[in-house]
Amino acid sequence: NMSxxxxxxxxxxxxxxxxxxxxSGEDSLDRLLPGPPIIAVRRKSTSQTKTEVLRTxxxxxxxxxxxxxxxxxxxxxxxxxxxGLCGGSASGKTTVANKIIEALDVPWVVLxxxxxxxxxxxxxxxxxxxxxxxxxxxxxIVMIPVYDFTTHGRQKxxxxxxxASVVIFEGIMSFADKELLELRDMKSIVDTDSDIRHVRxxxxxxxxRGRDIEGVIKQYNKFxxxxxxxxxxxxxxxxxxxxxxxxxxxxxxxxxxxxxxxPLCCFVQGSPVLGPADSAPPPSQTLRVLESMPQVKGLHTxxxxxxxxxxxxxxxxxxxxxxxxEHALTFLPSQPCTVQTPxxxxxxxxxxxxxxxxxxxxxxxxxxxxxxxxxLIQTNLDSGEPxxxxxxxxxGISEEHVILxxxxxxxxxxxxxxxxxxxxxxxxxxxxxxxxxMAGLGVHxxxxxxxxxxxxxxxxxxxxxxxxxxxxxIGDFGDLYFGTDGRTSGWSDDEEQEQPKQQTMNxxx
Length: 509
Ligand SMILES: Nc1ncnc2c1ncn2[C@@H]1O[C@H](COP(=O)(O)OP(=O)(O)O)[C@@H](O)[C@H]1O
Ligand SMILES: Nc1ccn([C@@H]2O[C@H](COP(=O)(O)O)[C@@H](O)[C@H]2O)c(=O)n1
Known about the structure:
13 helices, Rossmann fold, 28 strands, alpha/beta
C-alpha cells in the first residue's frame, strides 16, 4: 500500500477484493484475489499510472489533523478531496456517503447533496450548483439551500458549510455534468439492482416524502427509470469505485463501516493533534499572554468570583478588556515619528496604526475607536456545531489589520469560524484574536489551525470540562455581562433600569 500521485483507487484489505479495469478494457484481478468481487476499482489512465499494479493505487491525503485551509505542515492551503457519488434513486447514495464519513472518522468531511439544488417550484432558476462544489473544493465557505421533498420547495434557512478536507458530492446526476465531473478526485457509483431501488423508493417516498403508492409507481416508470438509463447507466464505466449490487439480505449496512469502507479509509490520514482534553497544551508560537501583574490577577479574582455582583461584572471586565486591547495593539506594526513637546523639544516616538489600518471585529458587539465589524455565531444546541447567523464587515477590510474580539474562547469553535470568515474576506492573515480568557484547548486549536494568527489573552486556563468550557473558568461571560444569568446587581430597581445593556460593549474601547 503506497501513495502514488495521480492515482485514485483503493486499498485491498481483509476479505475485500477488487476488479480492475484499465482504460483500455477489463484486466481482472479476480483470479489474484480471494473472495467474490465486491468492490470494483478503476484507475485513472494517465501515462504515469498505466503500468502500475492496481494494488498500490492509494491516494492519500495527509491532513495531520489540521482543518482544510492548510496542508499538513501548516503552510499552503490545499484543495479539498472531492468524492463523487452517483447511483440511481434510492440506490443508497446517502447511506453510503454517511458510512464513508463514519469510516473516515476525521473532521472536516462535508456531504453535499445534489438534492439541495433542485429548482424550486414554480420554476426559479436562481442557483448554479457548479458554484458550491467549486467553492468548497477551494476551501471556501458556501451557503447551501435545504430542499424539502414534501413541499417541493426550499426551507427558509440555508446551511452554512465551511471549507472541507473531503467533500462527498452525491446525486443521481452527479456524473452527467462534465464540469462537475472534472472537480472529482474520485468517482464512486452505488450500483443497486433496479427492483431493489424501486421497492426502497416506494417505501421511502411514502413514509418520508409524503407521496402515495400510485404516484410513486407512476413517477418511477415515467421519469425515474428512463432518467436512470439516460443519465446514470452510461456513466457507470467512469467510476473508480463501484459499490456493488447488494440487496436487503446482503446488506452493506450489516457490515461495520470499517469493513465496508476500509478501501476509502486510507484516503484521509489525520493524526490526532490533542492529548486528553485537560492536558497542558504545547506552547504556541503565536500566543501572547498578558503578564500576570497584581492588578491583572486582581481583576481575574473579581470576575471569576461567583459572589461578584452584576454591576461589578460590568465594571471590572472593562478594565481588563482595556489592558487586553492595549496588549494586542503592541503586536501591531507602528511607525517611528517625531513630535514637538510644548517646550519646543523633539520627542522620538512611535505612531501605531490605531484608528487607521486596524479593524476591530467583535463576535459579541462593536468597538468604537476603530472601524468595526460584527460576527454573530451561535452554537446549534442540537448539533453542537457553531452556526454563523450574522456577519457585517466593513469595506476594504482585506487591507486592514484585524483585532478579532471574543470575550472567552474555550473550544474555539466560534473563534475558528470567525477567523475563517475573515480569511474568506481576504483578510491576509493579519489577524489578532483577542480574548479575556482562553482554554488551553482553544489556544491549541487556533494556533494549530491558523499558524499565522496572533493569539492575545490575559490568561490561559489549562483544563476544560465535559462541555469544553474552560476550568476554573469564568462562567458564561455574555450572560453575566448582560445580566441574563439571574445574578443580582446590588442596585435598586430604578438604578437597575439605568444600567448598561447590550450597547455597553461599544463603550469598552
Ligand atoms: N443496503 C441497504 N439495505 C437496506 N436498506 C437500505 C440500504 N441502503 C439504503 N437503504 C434504504 O433505502 C432508502 C434509500 O436510501 P438512500 O441512502 O437515501 O438512497 P439515495 O440517497 O441513493 O436516494 C433509505 O430508506 C435507506 O434506509
Ligand atoms: N420534488 C422532488 C424532487 C426530486 N424528486 C426525485 O428525487 C429523486 C432523487 O433523490 P434520491 O435521494 O432518490 O437520489 C429523483 O428521482 C427525483 O425524481 C422528487 O420525487 N420530488
